Amino acid sequence: MDGALISISGSHIAANSSRGTAPVLDPHGGVTHDDIRKAIEASRYLMLPPEKQIVDIIEQDFSLDGQSGIKDPLGMSGMNLEVGVQIITGSTSFINNLTKCILKLDIPIDGLLLGGLASGEAVLNSDEKQVGIVLLDIGAGTTDVAVFKDGYLLNSWVIPVGGAHIDNDIAVYFGTSRAEAERLKIEHGRAYMEGVDDSDPIEIDHVGGEDRTQVPKGMLSQVIQPRVSELLRIIRGDMENNLPPTVLPAGVVITCGTALLDGLPEMAEEILGFKARVASPKYNGPFSDKISNTFSSTAFGMLSWAAKHSVRAGYSAVPPSDSVIHNVINTITKFFKGFSK
Ligand SMILES: Nc1ncnc2c1ncn2[C@@H]1O[C@H](COP(=O)(O)OP(=O)(O)OP(=O)(O)O)[C@@H](O)[C@H]1O
Ligand SMILES: [Mg+2]
Fold it and tell me: Does ligand 1 have an atom closer than 6 angstroms to the CB of 141?
Protein backbone atom coordinates (compact mmCIF):
# COMPACT_ATOMS: atom_id res chain seq x y z
CA MET A 1 0.00 0.00 0.00
CA ASP A 2 1.39 3.38 -0.97
CA GLY A 3 -0.12 5.25 1.91
CA ALA A 4 -3.15 5.76 4.11
CA LEU A 5 -5.25 8.75 5.00
CA ILE A 6 -6.38 8.25 8.59
CA SER A 7 -9.66 9.48 10.02
CA ILE A 8 -9.38 10.81 13.56
CA SER A 9 -11.99 11.71 16.16
CA GLY A 10 -12.39 12.02 19.94
CA SER A 11 -13.21 14.66 22.52
CA HIS A 12 -9.52 15.73 22.59
CA ILE A 13 -10.01 17.28 19.13
CA ALA A 14 -10.47 21.06 18.94
CA ALA A 15 -10.50 23.69 16.19
CA ASN A 16 -8.69 27.01 16.67
CA SER A 17 -8.93 30.06 14.39
CA SER A 18 -5.66 31.49 13.14
CA ARG A 19 -4.38 33.71 10.33
CA GLY A 20 -1.18 33.69 8.29
CA THR A 21 0.34 36.17 5.88
CA ALA A 22 2.96 35.98 3.14
CA PRO A 23 4.24 38.50 0.60
CA VAL A 24 3.35 37.74 -3.02
CA LEU A 25 6.77 37.13 -4.58
CA ASP A 26 5.80 38.39 -8.02
CA PRO A 27 2.95 40.91 -7.45
CA HIS A 28 2.37 41.47 -11.19
CA GLY A 29 2.63 37.81 -12.18
CA GLY A 30 0.01 36.98 -9.52
CA VAL A 31 -0.33 34.70 -6.52
CA THR A 32 1.36 31.32 -6.95
CA HIS A 33 0.89 27.97 -5.19
CA ASP A 34 4.05 28.73 -3.30
CA ASP A 35 2.70 32.04 -1.95
CA ILE A 36 -0.47 30.22 -0.80
CA ARG A 37 1.56 27.49 0.87
CA LYS A 38 3.72 30.08 2.67
CA ALA A 39 0.67 31.98 3.98
CA ILE A 40 -0.86 28.73 5.26
CA GLU A 41 2.48 27.73 6.76
CA ALA A 42 2.69 31.08 8.58
CA SER A 43 -0.71 30.42 10.21
CA ARG A 44 0.51 27.36 12.09
CA TYR A 45 2.51 29.21 14.73
CA LEU A 46 -0.11 28.78 17.39
CA MET A 47 0.86 28.49 21.05
CA LEU A 48 0.08 24.90 21.92
CA PRO A 49 0.71 23.04 25.18
CA PRO A 50 3.08 20.04 24.71
CA GLU A 51 0.22 17.57 25.11
CA LYS A 52 -1.49 19.01 22.01
CA GLN A 53 -0.43 18.86 18.39
CA ILE A 54 -1.71 19.98 15.01
CA VAL A 55 -3.77 17.38 13.11
CA ASP A 56 -4.75 19.47 10.11
CA ILE A 57 -4.95 23.04 8.86
CA ILE A 58 -8.09 23.93 6.92
CA GLU A 59 -8.06 27.13 4.95
CA GLN A 60 -11.14 29.35 5.03
CA ASP A 61 -10.91 32.50 2.93
CA PHE A 62 -8.06 34.63 1.65
CA SER A 63 -7.47 38.40 1.63
CA LEU A 64 -5.28 40.16 -0.86
CA ASP A 65 -4.06 43.65 0.16
CA GLY A 66 -7.03 43.94 2.52
CA GLN A 67 -9.67 42.75 0.02
CA SER A 68 -11.30 39.88 1.90
CA GLY A 69 -13.59 36.95 1.08
CA ILE A 70 -11.45 35.49 -1.74
CA LYS A 71 -11.96 31.73 -2.20
CA ASP A 72 -9.12 31.00 -4.63
CA PRO A 73 -6.47 33.72 -4.97
CA LEU A 74 -4.34 31.78 -7.47
CA GLY A 75 -3.15 34.11 -10.25
CA MET A 76 -4.64 37.27 -8.71
CA SER A 77 -2.38 40.36 -8.58
CA GLY A 78 -1.49 41.84 -5.21
CA MET A 79 1.33 42.36 -2.74
CA ASN A 80 0.24 40.81 0.51
CA LEU A 81 -1.65 37.56 0.87
CA GLU A 82 -3.47 36.67 4.07
CA VAL A 83 -5.32 33.45 4.86
CA GLY A 84 -7.79 32.59 7.63
CA VAL A 85 -7.58 28.98 8.79
CA GLN A 86 -9.00 26.55 11.29
CA ILE A 87 -6.19 24.65 12.96
CA ILE A 88 -7.41 21.26 14.13
CA THR A 89 -5.49 20.03 17.16
CA GLY A 90 -5.53 16.75 19.05
CA SER A 91 -3.86 14.97 21.95
CA THR A 92 -0.19 14.25 21.21
CA SER A 93 -0.21 10.88 22.98
CA PHE A 94 -3.43 9.78 21.20
CA ILE A 95 -1.98 10.70 17.81
CA ASN A 96 1.38 9.08 18.60
CA ASN A 97 -0.28 5.81 19.62
CA LEU A 98 -2.58 5.83 16.59
CA THR A 99 0.24 6.50 14.15
CA LYS A 100 2.55 3.95 15.83
CA CYS A 101 -0.08 1.20 15.35
CA ILE A 102 -0.43 2.02 11.66
CA LEU A 103 3.30 2.37 11.02
CA LYS A 104 3.85 -1.02 12.70
CA LEU A 105 1.78 -2.49 9.85
CA ASP A 106 4.25 -0.88 7.42
CA ILE A 107 1.59 1.46 6.10
CA PRO A 108 2.93 4.95 5.38
CA ILE A 109 0.62 7.70 6.63
CA ASP A 110 -0.33 10.35 4.07
CA GLY A 111 -2.29 12.47 6.50
CA LEU A 112 -4.88 12.72 9.25
CA LEU A 113 -8.39 13.97 8.57
CA LEU A 114 -11.07 14.79 11.11
CA GLY A 115 -13.86 12.18 10.82
CA GLY A 116 -16.61 14.80 10.87
CA LEU A 117 -14.97 16.73 8.05
CA ALA A 118 -14.69 13.60 5.95
CA SER A 119 -18.39 12.86 6.53
CA GLY A 120 -19.27 16.45 5.63
CA GLU A 121 -17.28 16.10 2.42
CA ALA A 122 -19.46 13.11 1.51
CA VAL A 123 -22.93 14.42 2.27
CA LEU A 124 -23.07 18.22 2.20
CA ASN A 125 -23.67 20.19 -0.95
CA SER A 126 -21.99 23.50 -1.68
CA ASP A 127 -25.23 25.50 -1.21
CA GLU A 128 -25.61 24.16 2.30
CA LYS A 129 -22.00 24.99 3.14
CA GLN A 130 -22.52 28.47 1.75
CA VAL A 131 -25.77 29.29 3.54
CA GLY A 132 -24.73 27.73 6.86
CA ILE A 133 -25.18 24.16 8.01
CA VAL A 134 -24.48 22.01 11.06
CA LEU A 135 -23.21 18.53 10.26
CA LEU A 136 -23.69 15.82 12.90
CA ASP A 137 -21.69 12.61 12.38
CA ILE A 138 -23.22 10.40 15.06
CA GLY A 139 -21.29 7.14 15.35
CA ALA A 140 -20.97 4.57 18.12
CA GLY A 141 -18.68 6.33 20.59
CA THR A 142 -18.64 9.95 19.45
CA THR A 143 -20.60 12.69 17.74
CA ASP A 144 -18.51 14.91 15.47
CA VAL A 145 -19.99 18.36 14.92
CA ALA A 146 -18.83 20.52 12.00
CA VAL A 147 -20.36 23.90 11.20
CA PHE A 148 -19.96 25.38 7.72
CA LYS A 149 -20.76 28.92 6.62
CA ASP A 150 -19.81 31.00 3.54
CA GLY A 151 -18.44 27.85 1.92
CA TYR A 152 -15.90 26.95 4.58
CA LEU A 153 -15.52 25.25 7.96
CA LEU A 154 -16.40 27.68 10.71
CA ASN A 155 -15.81 25.40 13.69
CA SER A 156 -15.69 21.77 14.62
CA TRP A 157 -15.70 19.76 17.84
CA VAL A 158 -16.35 16.25 19.12
CA ILE A 159 -18.76 15.11 21.85
CA PRO A 160 -17.97 11.75 23.50
CA VAL A 161 -21.53 10.42 23.14
CA GLY A 162 -22.88 8.13 20.41
CA GLY A 163 -25.03 5.08 19.72
CA ALA A 164 -23.07 2.83 22.11
CA HIS A 165 -24.24 4.99 25.02
CA ILE A 166 -27.84 4.28 24.02
CA ASP A 167 -27.03 0.54 23.94
CA ASN A 168 -25.55 0.81 27.40
CA ASP A 169 -28.65 2.54 28.78
CA ILE A 170 -30.89 -0.15 27.28
CA ALA A 171 -28.65 -2.97 28.57
CA VAL A 172 -28.64 -1.59 32.12
CA TYR A 173 -32.36 -0.80 32.19
CA PHE A 174 -33.58 -4.15 30.83
CA GLY A 175 -30.77 -6.32 32.27
CA THR A 176 -29.66 -7.53 28.89
CA SER A 177 -26.38 -7.83 26.93
CA ARG A 178 -24.95 -4.93 24.90
CA ALA A 179 -25.45 -6.95 21.71
CA GLU A 180 -29.14 -7.58 22.53
CA ALA A 181 -29.53 -3.91 23.51
CA GLU A 182 -28.11 -2.82 20.13
CA ARG A 183 -30.46 -5.23 18.33
CA LEU A 184 -33.46 -3.82 20.21
CA LYS A 185 -32.39 -0.26 19.38
CA ILE A 186 -31.90 -1.01 15.67
CA GLU A 187 -35.08 -3.11 15.25
CA HIS A 188 -37.52 -1.31 17.54
CA GLY A 189 -35.86 1.84 18.91
CA ARG A 190 -37.34 5.27 18.46
CA ALA A 191 -36.01 8.57 19.71
CA TYR A 192 -39.17 10.59 19.39
CA MET A 193 -42.39 9.35 20.88
CA GLU A 194 -45.01 11.89 19.92
CA GLY A 195 -47.96 10.58 17.92
CA VAL A 196 -46.82 6.96 17.94
CA ASP A 197 -48.80 4.03 19.23
CA ASP A 198 -46.14 2.04 21.01
CA SER A 199 -48.12 -0.46 23.00
CA ASP A 200 -46.96 -3.29 20.67
CA PRO A 201 -45.01 -5.91 22.63
CA ILE A 202 -41.34 -6.64 21.90
CA GLU A 203 -39.31 -9.58 23.18
CA ILE A 204 -36.12 -9.14 25.21
CA ASP A 205 -33.39 -11.72 25.95
CA HIS A 206 -31.96 -11.35 29.44
CA VAL A 207 -28.34 -11.84 30.46
CA GLY A 208 -27.56 -15.38 31.58
CA GLY A 209 -31.18 -16.55 31.56
CA GLU A 210 -33.23 -18.58 29.15
CA ASP A 211 -36.30 -16.47 29.81
CA ARG A 212 -37.46 -13.88 27.31
CA THR A 213 -39.82 -11.21 28.50
CA GLN A 214 -42.20 -9.00 26.62
CA VAL A 215 -42.38 -5.26 27.17
CA PRO A 216 -44.31 -2.57 25.31
CA LYS A 217 -42.27 -0.92 22.57
CA GLY A 218 -42.85 2.46 24.19
CA MET A 219 -40.81 1.43 27.21
CA LEU A 220 -37.76 1.10 24.96
CA SER A 221 -38.32 4.59 23.57
CA GLN A 222 -38.57 5.93 27.11
CA VAL A 223 -35.04 4.65 27.74
CA ILE A 224 -33.65 5.93 24.43
CA GLN A 225 -35.21 9.37 24.45
CA PRO A 226 -33.38 10.93 27.45
CA ARG A 227 -29.94 10.02 26.06
CA VAL A 228 -30.73 11.41 22.60
CA SER A 229 -32.25 14.51 24.15
CA GLU A 230 -29.15 14.97 26.35
CA LEU A 231 -26.87 14.68 23.30
CA LEU A 232 -28.88 17.24 21.32
CA ARG A 233 -28.93 19.64 24.28
CA ILE A 234 -25.13 19.35 24.60
CA ILE A 235 -24.88 20.18 20.89
CA ARG A 236 -27.20 23.19 21.33
CA GLY A 237 -25.14 24.46 24.31
CA ASP A 238 -21.85 23.96 22.44
CA MET A 239 -23.24 25.85 19.47
CA GLU A 240 -24.11 28.79 21.70
CA ASN A 241 -20.58 28.76 23.13
CA ASN A 242 -18.57 27.98 19.98
CA LEU A 243 -20.28 30.04 17.27
CA PRO A 244 -20.57 33.80 16.80
CA PRO A 245 -24.11 34.96 17.72
CA THR A 246 -24.62 36.25 14.16
CA VAL A 247 -24.34 32.75 12.70
CA LEU A 248 -27.76 31.22 12.18
CA PRO A 249 -27.44 27.85 10.42
CA ALA A 250 -30.12 27.00 7.87
CA GLY A 251 -30.36 23.40 8.95
CA VAL A 252 -28.77 20.32 10.39
CA VAL A 253 -27.60 17.29 8.40
CA ILE A 254 -27.27 14.02 10.32
CA THR A 255 -25.18 11.12 9.07
CA CYS A 256 -23.29 7.89 10.04
CA GLY A 257 -24.73 4.84 11.83
CA THR A 258 -26.83 6.44 14.56
CA ALA A 259 -28.46 8.76 12.00
CA LEU A 260 -30.67 5.73 11.24
CA LEU A 261 -32.31 5.88 14.66
CA ASP A 262 -36.00 6.29 14.03
CA GLY A 263 -37.34 9.71 15.05
CA LEU A 264 -33.91 11.34 15.43
CA PRO A 265 -34.45 14.11 12.83
CA GLU A 266 -37.79 15.06 14.42
CA MET A 267 -36.14 15.35 17.81
CA ALA A 268 -33.21 17.32 16.39
CA GLU A 269 -35.66 19.77 14.83
CA GLU A 270 -37.46 20.19 18.14
CA ILE A 271 -34.34 20.70 20.28
CA LEU A 272 -32.04 22.54 17.86
CA GLY A 273 -34.79 24.50 16.15
CA PHE A 274 -33.59 23.95 12.53
CA LYS A 275 -34.76 21.75 9.70
CA ALA A 276 -33.01 18.36 9.90
CA ARG A 277 -32.28 15.77 7.22
CA VAL A 278 -30.56 12.40 7.31
CA ALA A 279 -27.94 12.10 4.59
CA SER A 280 -25.80 9.46 2.89
CA PRO A 281 -23.19 9.88 0.13
CA LYS A 282 -24.59 10.67 -3.31
CA TYR A 283 -22.84 8.30 -5.64
CA ASN A 284 -23.96 6.32 -8.70
CA GLY A 285 -20.77 4.44 -9.61
CA PRO A 286 -19.65 0.89 -8.86
CA PHE A 287 -20.83 -0.60 -5.51
CA SER A 288 -23.34 2.23 -5.15
CA ASP A 289 -25.68 -0.10 -3.22
CA LYS A 290 -22.96 -0.51 -0.56
CA ILE A 291 -21.75 3.07 -0.60
CA SER A 292 -25.00 5.04 -0.64
CA ASN A 293 -25.89 4.55 3.01
CA THR A 294 -25.24 6.65 6.09
CA PHE A 295 -22.59 4.20 7.37
CA SER A 296 -20.28 4.94 4.47
CA SER A 297 -20.17 8.71 4.88
CA THR A 298 -16.80 8.92 6.63
CA ALA A 299 -15.07 6.39 4.36
CA PHE A 300 -16.57 7.85 1.19
CA GLY A 301 -15.70 11.37 2.33
CA MET A 302 -12.08 10.28 2.90
CA LEU A 303 -11.90 8.88 -0.65
CA SER A 304 -13.52 11.95 -2.09
CA TRP A 305 -11.18 14.21 -0.13
CA ALA A 306 -8.13 12.18 -1.21
CA ALA A 307 -9.27 12.34 -4.83
CA LYS A 308 -9.86 16.07 -4.57
CA HIS A 309 -6.50 16.52 -2.95
CA SER A 310 -4.67 14.84 -5.77
CA VAL A 311 -6.62 16.98 -8.23
CA ARG A 312 -5.85 19.93 -5.99
CA ALA A 313 -2.15 19.11 -5.90
CA GLY A 314 -1.82 22.56 -7.39
CA TYR A 315 -4.76 24.21 -5.59
CA SER A 316 -7.09 23.95 -8.53
CA ALA A 317 -10.67 24.72 -7.56
CA VAL A 318 -11.87 21.78 -9.69
CA PRO A 319 -14.05 19.37 -7.69
CA PRO A 320 -13.28 15.66 -8.01
CA SER A 321 -15.12 14.03 -10.87
CA ASP A 322 -16.98 10.75 -10.34
CA SER A 323 -14.30 9.12 -12.49
CA VAL A 324 -11.55 10.18 -10.09
CA ILE A 325 -13.53 8.68 -7.21
CA HIS A 326 -14.16 5.49 -9.28
CA ASN A 327 -10.44 5.19 -9.79
CA VAL A 328 -9.70 5.48 -6.10
CA ILE A 329 -12.43 2.96 -5.27
CA ASN A 330 -11.22 0.55 -7.98
CA THR A 331 -7.65 0.76 -6.69
CA ILE A 332 -8.80 0.00 -3.16
CA THR A 333 -11.04 -2.85 -4.35
CA LYS A 334 -8.12 -4.39 -6.27
CA PHE A 335 -5.97 -4.08 -3.17
CA PHE A 336 -8.46 -5.97 -0.99
CA LYS A 337 -9.14 -8.57 -3.73
CA GLY A 338 -5.38 -9.16 -3.77
CA PHE A 339 -5.52 -10.01 -0.08
CA SER A 340 -8.44 -12.39 -0.34
CA LYS A 341 -6.76 -14.54 -3.03
N1 LIG B 1 -30.79 1.26 12.13
C2 LIG B 1 -30.11 1.81 13.14
N3 LIG B 1 -30.73 2.55 14.09
C4 LIG B 1 -30.05 3.08 15.10
N5 LIG B 1 -28.71 2.98 15.29
C6 LIG B 1 -28.04 2.27 14.37
C7 LIG B 1 -28.68 1.65 13.26
N8 LIG B 1 -27.76 0.98 12.54
C9 LIG B 1 -26.58 1.19 13.19
N10 LIG B 1 -26.73 1.96 14.28
C11 LIG B 1 -25.70 2.38 15.25
O12 LIG B 1 -24.68 3.13 14.58
C13 LIG B 1 -23.48 3.05 15.36
C14 LIG B 1 -22.30 2.80 14.42
O15 LIG B 1 -22.21 3.89 13.54
P16 LIG B 1 -20.84 4.21 12.77
O17 LIG B 1 -20.43 3.00 11.99
O18 LIG B 1 -21.04 5.48 12.06
O19 LIG B 1 -19.87 4.40 14.02
P20 LIG B 1 -18.28 4.45 14.10
O21 LIG B 1 -17.74 5.28 13.02
O22 LIG B 1 -17.79 3.03 14.21
O23 LIG B 1 -18.10 5.13 15.55
P24 LIG B 1 -17.33 6.46 15.95
O25 LIG B 1 -17.51 7.44 14.84
O26 LIG B 1 -18.00 6.90 17.21
O27 LIG B 1 -15.92 6.05 16.16
C28 LIG B 1 -23.66 1.92 16.36
O29 LIG B 1 -23.89 2.47 17.66
C30 LIG B 1 -24.91 1.22 15.83
O31 LIG B 1 -25.65 0.59 16.86
MG1 LIG C 1 -17.40 7.37 12.81
Answer: yes
What's the CATH code of the domain at 173?
3.90.640.10
Query: Could you report the per-residue pLDDT of 5-39, keeping only the tens digit for each?
Result: 899 999 999 999 999 999 999 999 999 999 999 99
Specify the pLDDT at position 173: 95
Cβ(228) to ligand 1 under 6 A? no
Distance of CA 19 to CAs 33, 81, 108, 257, Å?
A: 17, 11, 30, 35
Task: Please give the Cα distance from 308 to 235 (Å, whole number).
Answer: 30
* Distance between Cα 289 and ligand 1 center (Å): 18
Q: Domain count for the chain, please give it.
A: 1
| Atom 25, ligand 1: residue with shortest CA distance | 139
The greatest distance separating any two alpha carbons of the chain, rounded to the nearest whole angstrom, comes to 81
Q: What is the pLDDT of residues 260-305, one digit of tens each?
A: 999 999 999 999 999 999 999 988 888 888 888 999 999 999 988 8
Residue 119 near ligand 1, beta carbon < 6 Å: no
Q: Is residue 95 situated within a structural domain?
A: no
Residue 340 domain-assigned (yes or no):
no
Rg for the chain (alpha carbons), in Å? 22
Distance from Cα 120 to the centre of ligand 2, integer Å: 12
pTM of the model: 0.88
